[in-house]
Amino acid sequence: MSQVLVASNRGPVSFSLSDDGALTMRRGGGGLVSGLAGIAAAPGDASPDVLWVCSSLGEADRTAARGSPDGRLDLAGYETGGAAVRMLDIPAGTFHRAYNAVANSTLWFVHHLLYDTPRSPHFDARTRRDWQSYEAYNAAFADALARDAAPGAKTAIQDYHLSLAPRMLRERRPDLRIVHFSHTPWAPPDYFRLLPDDIGTQILLGILGADHAGFLTERWASAFLDCCESLPGTRVDRASRTVSCGGHVTRVGVHGLGVDGTALRQRAAEQDVVERARALREQVGDRQLIVRVDRTELSKNIVRGLAAYRELLVNHPEWRGRVVHLAFAYPSRYDLREYREYTEAVERTAKQITDEFGTADWDPLIVQVNDDYPRSLAAYGLADVLLVNPIRDGMNLVAKEGPVLSQRGCALVLSREAGAAAELSEGALTINPYDVSQTAEALHRALLMPRAERAERCGRLAAAATALPPHRWFADQLAALD
Ligand code: G6P
Question: What's a GO cellular component annotated to this UniProt protein (predicted)?
């Protein structure tokens, strides 16, 4: 029985299975895992007794979950912030429909405003079948949490995969105190209304089953309140930021998430990062370096970022031969056609740029579509310019990690549509992510920026980035339940 429980789709590790049947464990990716990895790590504090419940994501995870007593994993040496981890063995079909069809193809698209004409919303009988799997998936989490929570325990349910779980858990265990936290943006009401009425209503009611609904910025919290306002039978009080519904009151709060500077610097000083930094430095020589690090994700806007780099080389040919763009994109959500096509578009655009500008002794662009965390940390250290240009993003921790690790005082070119812009806009050069020309000019300005100004801005960015380390973010959510 645990006093504090966390629930999220992706856990801190996932497994792969080699041909001889051996399981290998590796770090989970994405901002949510980076944030939660530090939850119990407040320096000097006694770690709370935390149980982190997550889903098995593939066959290897299911094998690991089945082979562990009650799904509890032995995680010696992994960055779980001191939490014990329990992996749920969710049936493959249920997982596929809940994660791919509902969470990532529908809810993610709505909150990131990703629908466009070739991929316009179309909801039919199949949507309802997928939705049943989403309900079953959420119920599996609610069952597990209800079983493992001590009386009156605090439970922090994370993200859009688990919108229904707060209400389901309250029904099973009214004694628990429940927070739901959204790591994504929240859609404005006119966009949220694209969802079928029954589904949109259940999403809102599900989250309103929590005592506290947390968001990364004021903007997303306020969009959630706007959506609740159109829900029959609810009363939204803007002054106290509460929503009353069926006799239950949910408080809405904003909890920014930053990085743990000390832990990040320690990790970046390890041998694997140092070696990769050396190799990268040899590869780029003394040229200036523009770095980006993302999942290969539609909302990260990688193709427009590459187009902006091309426009920089066209409009300011003086940079040719003097700059290298390093774009690390690690594979994401490959089960979805949109993501596979997007990866192809990234690779196609990259090839066009290399063919157009590359010379015998200058590679203008190095794009690598694979996951190498230490290499990303090494690149942050070497960056002169960090490009973070999502079309919409809950927070974006790359914009915070980069300045903390930069050894050259990097300039940050940052989309105004990333949640991080609310905290970093003073030190960053902010851009409209759809405006490729503006992005190209911001890259030009960043490359020209005098070293002293860059260093001064970078110092301010690093201070803002570390102001709210994950353990404080997490403690704030729990404190909101008192
Ligand atoms: C975003 C979401 C997280 C998710 C991460 C990686 O940060 O808010 O919930 O874990 O992306 O995505 P994936 O689908 O690979 O878990």
Answer: cytosol
Which CATH number characterizes residue 424's domain?
Answer: 3.40.50.2000
> Which atom of ligand 1 approaches the CA of 104 most closely?
14
463 and 197 Cβ atoms separated by less than 8 Å: no
- Reply yes or no on whether the pLDDT at 40 is more than 70: no
CA dist 405 and 382 (Å) reads 9
Q: Which of 344, 439, 432, 436 is nearest to 391 (CA)?
A: 432
Q: Which residues contact 355 (CB under 8 A, 6 or more apart)?
A: none
Please report the atom of ligand 1 found closest to the CA of residue 8: 9
The DSSP H or E segment spanning 245 is strand 242-245
The yes-or-no verdict on residue 49 having pLDDT over 80 is: no
Does residue 26 sit in the same domain as residue 102? Answer: yes
- Predicted complex ipTM exceeds 0.95: yes
Neighbouring CB atoms inside 10 A of 233's CB total 9
For ligand 1, residues with CB inside 6 Å are: 10, 29-32, 159, 183-184, 332-333, 394
For the chain, the domain total comes to 2
* Nearest CA residue ID for atom 11, ligand 1: 30
The alpha carbons of the chain give a radius of gyration, in whole angstroms, of: 22
* Protein residue closest via CA to atom 6 of ligand 1: 30
**For residue 78, pLDDT beyond 80:** no
Closest CA to 440 of 375, 381, 389: 389
Residue 32 C-alpha to ligand 1 middle, in angstroms? Answer: 6
- Protein residue with least CA distance to atom 15, ligand 1: 332
**Strand partners of residue 327:** 292, 367
269 and 224 housed in the same domain: no
- Whether the predicted pLDDT of 42 surpasses 80: no
Residue 289 in contact with residue 385, Cβ under 8 Å? Answer: yes
Q: Alpha-carbon distance 107 to 141, whole Å? A: 18
Name the E strands within 282-384: 288-295, 323-330, 365-368
Looking at the structure, tell me whether residues 364 and 231 fall in a common domain: no
Residues 45 and 97 in one domain: yes
> Are 356 and 274 within one domain?
yes
Q: What is the pLDDT of residues 324-359, one digit of tens each?
A: 999 999 989 999 999 999 999 999 999 999 999 999
Indicate whether this model's pTM tops 0.90: yes
* SS3 assignment, position 326: strand
Indicate whether 187 and 58 sit together in one domain: yes
Whole-Å CA distances, 375 to 315, 342, 351 = 31, 23, 22
Q: Which structural domain range is residue 309 located in?
A: 261-466
